[in-house]
UniProtKB/TrEMBL annotation:
PROSITE patterns noted in UniProt: AMP_BINDING
Keywords: Ligase
Pfam families: AMP-binding, AMP-binding_C
Residue ranges of every copy of the AMP-binding enzyme C-terminal domain listed in the record: 435-510
Originating species: Micromonospora coerulea
Identification of the protein by name: AMP-binding protein
Keyword Transmembrane helix: no
Domain of life: Bacteria
Protein family per UniProt: Belongs to the ATP-dependent AMP-binding enzyme family.
Coiled-coil region list: none
Domain AMP-dependent synthetase/ligase: 43-387
């Protein structure tokens, strides 16, 4: 990425604002010595703004950047002295959004250990499999998961919230930390919507490039107050944490998402920005907005597709502040849609940010023309380093296959049609569930919609639509079919229309298709 662009973007976002020379020198020294990992980012923030509030959580805990760093260092020293953790080990983190999760990740990085971010929605059996496959030495977990971790292998040290506080309090003085012999990696588990998740190794940034790619298109600024509603164990929530540390922001965290509580926190803490997943925006719209409205300048979402109509509905209430990032655990980011893009085309994934290459290729590896569906390949500075199992994704000319299908329109906007393996073939016709879902979501009675393919003896597959309605609303299945038939081709009409109380989702808001298929045995 070219230097003039980096300097211009950092200047616009307030990162090059002059400060006390000794603190600026200490900040740069921290980055030079500790690098751009989460530990390095926390160190630079503590060096430049030691007394600034770093984290506020709903239990009333407020920590400055210096206090957060001190606690993470004490935890790291105790893990090394008392649990024998060293560079190359793996520390699992099974926590909801609170300061303890951050401290555990940073402590792992300070020791050169890998932090494995564990999805809080995993079953006990899945958790045991993850612990074995990732060869965890330690699992730091919230107290609420005590029963779920009982079946872990005996060699895994289990540290609950009380144990974490005891390790921090009992750290020996004078045992100074030095940069480890190897950088610790963050291992993010794939969403696991179809079974046991895979571990994906995230690279450590090597400079300002990744940060600049994001904040050039999403106007976040130094010392903003940011509420991170997306789970921190998810790629999007973790990315928000990295950006917040880089900007020396104040981070507001809640263990669980609740729309009314979230709106109250946004107003109380005068939040400038929020990171969320799309389903959270749907829930926020079901609660009356507070008066006065939160002073939001940015609401950044990622993790799943924006349902049809959600973007304009949200912006009509909270202003043109919505930014939609399309990416994945493997490619980090691919494209970003701003408010103007979403007003023009509410389901668009936007355009690639600076320094990102995006191509749509056919199965022979050749580019497809505008308007035609192709496989989405992406190249940027933060492509993952492979799965911990040793498996890799298909690449082409330095670009990584996202596994998604999409198309680019004449204006250069990307539209993601869905996963390649989610495409339904019904009677020889290709159908993308997202197109039908977006249409159904626009019915005023529908709270949320999901469409899947189910076996059919005549057509191979047929479409089944699952609809969760707003309280007190009703719909006739035949009326739903006629509605779809009016707008889409006949092969896109769902033969089965099933009404449910809610759609089953994982902790990051993605619909669990395997749960829906249980209706068919």
């Amino acid at each position: 990425m070219d230097l003039p662009f980096i300097v211009a973007t950092l200047t616009r976002r307030g990162l090059l604002t002059p400060g006390r020379p000794i603190r600026v020198a200490s900040q740069l020294g921290a980055l030079r010595k500790w690098g751009w990992s989460l530990a390095g980012e926390l160190r630079q923030a503590a060096a430049r703004d030691p007394g600034r509030t770093a984290v506020i959580d709903e239990q009333g805990v407020e920590l400055t950047y210096q206090e957060l760093l001190d606690r993470a260092e004490r935890l790291a020293r105790s893990m090394r002295a008392g649990l024998g953790v060293q560079a190359g080990d793996r520390i699992g983190v099974l926590c909801r959004n609170h300061h303890g999760l951050i401290e555990a990740i940073v402590a792992a990085m300070l020791l050169g250990a890998d932090a494995v971010l564990v999805n809080t929605g995993l079953s006990a059996a899945q958790l045991t499999t993850v612990a074995e496959e990732q060869a965890l030495r330690v699992l730091v977990h919230d107290a609420e998961f005590a029963e779920r971790v009982l079946g872990l292998p005996a060699e895994v040290h289990r540290v609950d919230e009380r144990g974490q506080e005891e390790l921090i309090a009992g750290a020996l003085p004078g045992d100074q930390l030095q940069p480890p012999e190897r950088d610790g990696r963050t291992i993010v588990l794939t969403s696991g919507t179809t079974g046991t998740p895979k571990g994906a190794r995230r690279p450590t940034p090597h400079g300002f490039g990744p940060l600049v790619s994001i904040i050039d298109r999403i106007p976040l600024h130094t010392r903003d107050t940011v509420l991170i509603a997306a789970p921190l164990f998810h790629t999007w929530g973790y990315a928000a944490l990295q950006v917040a540390f880089a900007l020396r922001a104040t981070i507001v965290l809640h263990r669980r998402f609740d729309p009314a509580t979230t709106l109250a926190a946004l107003a109380t803490h005068r939040c400038d920005a929020m990171f969320a997943v799309p389903v959270m925006l749907q829930r926020l719209l079901e609660v009356p907005p507070p008066t006065p409205r939160p002073p939001l300048k940015v609401v950044a979402v990622s993790g799943s597709a924006l349902p049809g109509g959600l973007a304009p509905k949200f912006m009509d209430v909270y202003g043109d502040v919505l930014y939609n990032l399309y990416g994945s655990t493997e490619v980090s980011w691919a494209s970003i849609a701003g408010p103007a893009d979403l007003r023009q085309a509410p389901t668009t994934a936007g355009r690639p940010p600076h320094g990102t290459r995006l191509e749509l290729l056919d199965h022979a590896g050749e580019p497809v023309p505008d308007g035609r569906v192709g496989r989405i390949f992406v190249g940027n500075e933060m492509l993952f380093e492979g799965y911990t199992s040793g498996a890799h994704r298909e690449t082409h000319d330095g670009l990584l296959n996202t596994g998604d299908l999409g198309r680019v329109n004449a204006d250069g906007l990307l539209f993601v049609d869905g996963r390649a393996d989610d495409m339904i073939v019904s009677g020889g016709e290709n159908v993308f569930p997202s197109e039908v879902e977006d249409l159904l979501a626009q019915l005023p009675q529908v709270r949320e919609a999901a469409v899947i393919g189910v076996p059919d003896p005549e057509y191979g597959q047929r479409l089944a639509a699952f609809l969760a309605l707003h309280p007190g609303e009703t719909l006739d299945p035949q009326a739903v079919r006629e509605y779809v038939r009016h707008y889409l081709a006949r092969f896109s009409v769902p033969r089965d229309v099933i009404f449910v109380k809610y759609l089953p989702r994982n902790a990051t808001g993605k619909v669990l298709s395997r749960e829906l298929r249980r209706y068919y045995g």
